[in-house]
Amino acid sequence: MDLQGQVALITGAGRNIGAETAKLLAQRGARVAVADNDAARGDKVAAEIRAQGGDAQGFVADVANEDDLRGLVDGVVRQWGRIDILVNNAAVSDNKDILEITRQEWDSVMAVTLTGPFLLSKYAAAQMLSQEGGGKIINIASTSGFYGRKRAVAYAAAKGGVIALTRAMAVQLGPRGIRVNAVVPNKIGSPVGKDEFDPNRPIVNLRGRPGVPLDMARAVAFLASDESDFIVGDMLLVDGGVTALMPGE
Q1: Strands, DSSP E only, in the chain?
Q2: Cβ distance 34 to 22 under 8 Å?
Q3: Is 226 in a helix, a strand, or coil?
Q4: Which candidate, 192, 42, 59, 175, places its Cα nearest to that of 113?
Q5: Number of C-beta neighbours around residue 201 at 10 A
Q6: pLDDT value, residue 24
Q7: Domain residue limits, the chain
Q8: What superfamily would CATH give domain 7-244?
Q9: Coil vs helix vs strand at 101
């Protein structure tokens, strides 16, 4: 899965799934834009990649801010001249039920988790269409987008939107040389927005172990490579078999 000569932009890349994905894509030869809303986190991951012989640069961006996203795309193109791979990873959760959540909290989750990927994909896709070779967009969805939850009503709705957005973009951009897919995790690494991994977090799956960020990074690397050339508009489940289980089993 050689990514030599390609430029990858990853949001939320300062920790957890985003950081591991940035490191793995760099190992495969990609030049990596490590985008995060925390400059220190992003710069740390970029420095770790460079220390291993890779090419990476930290970028600061709030994915809820449209001007930041335009500036992010422009900055990556100034740095390396193109964008070949976009990984929409940044997200926030609410952990509220519908009677608890406020409109402000709902809007905040939607801005980061759904509208951000839409806007960044729009600007990155325009760049991809302006260059030779097309591109790949990989959205990080969630099993929460397929099933109801006792909590996190906004997050579930936003991730359901990411799934629909992925399919819509795949239909619109696929014939123009941009493959769009999503990877669907279930309880991979630390919870959304958290730095610490809780080994006691309840895990029920068919592998008998918690998912780790490298599980996701490998799936993203596959979808970013030519080995997945005939896969478009798909949802690649990286959930340890959770969705195969009958409720109550």
Answers
A1: 7-10, 31-36, 55-60, 85-88, 135-140, 178-185, 235-238
A2: yes
A3: helix
A4: 192
A5: 10
A6: 98
A7: 7-244
A8: NAD(P)-binding Rossmann-like Domain (3.40.50.720)
A9: coil
The angle at the Cα of 10, spanning 9 to 16, to the nearest 5 degrees, equals: 160
Cβ-based neighbour number of residue 80 at 10 Å: 20
Supply the pLDDT for residue 247: 75
* Residue 200: strand, helix, or coil: coil
Q: How many residues does the chain have?
A: 249
The span from the CA of 178 to the CA of 180, in Å, is 6
Q: List residues with catalytic annotation.
A: 155
Q: What is the pLDDT of residue 187?
A: 86
Quote the pLDDT of residue 12. Answer: 97
pLDDT attached to residue 66 = 98
Q: What is the pLDDT of residue 149?
A: 86
Alpha carbon of 74 to those of 5, 81, 119, 138, 199: distances in Å?
Answer: 19, 9, 14, 19, 40
Identity (one letter) of the amino acid at 241?
G
How many other C-beta atoms can be found within 10 angstroms of the C-beta atom of residue 248?
A: 4
Report the candidate in 209, 219, 217, 212 with the shortest Cα–Cα distance to residue 241: 209
Beta bridge mates, 135: 178
Euclidean distance between CA atoms 157 and 141, whole angstroms: 11
- Taking 70 as the pLDDT cut, the residues of the chain under it are 190-200, 248-249
Report which DSSP code applies to 6. Answer: -
pTM: 0.95
CA distance 232 to 161: 17
